Amino acid sequence: MASKPLTGTKVFLMLVAFFGVVIGVNMTMMKLAIATLPGTDVDSPYAAGLTYDREISAAQDQAARKWKVNAHIERSTDGGAVLQVEARDASGQPMSGLKFGGRLERPTDKRADLAVELSEAGIGIYRGSAAAVAPGQWDLVIEGEARGTRVFLSRNRVILN
């Protein structure tokens, strides 16, 4: 059996094919990695930096109000979740007339975030639900507004089974 000689052209083509496969796999993996987890916490760090002083001032104003806001979230058997927020002022009186909203944010994937619309179910009690909430860790973000201005913000890590 006669074997063909190894020529420079064959070696060159083998090298091009090898590195072509390596570069192709790397490009595919890079594209998938960027598409699944972009690595940023905020869309614009510059804009977040500009609002930093306002966030500190809003947190100080919130602490000065001494409100007591308790949230309870429970996962239902159908895969949804029910969120209840109870808001009381510094003297312990229920507060009504506020507009509360909630968000369930996945710590690892912003695309899985869910908004929870809350409506006043009683004096100082706000309730809402979200459908198809996957089990696992979530960040529960609660925001309260009065006359179009955010007056309350809370972020807590919860585990839903």
Automatic annotation (TrEMBL):
This is Nitrogen fixation protein FixH. The lineage of its organism: Bacteria, Pseudomonadati, Pseudomonadota, Alphaproteobacteria, Hyphomicrobiales. Keywords: Membrane, Transmembrane, Transmembrane helix. It comes from Bradyrhizobium niftali. It comes from the Bacteria. The chain crosses the membrane at residues 12-34. Pfam families: FixH. InterPro entries: FixH (IPR008620), FixH_proteobacterial (IPR018037).
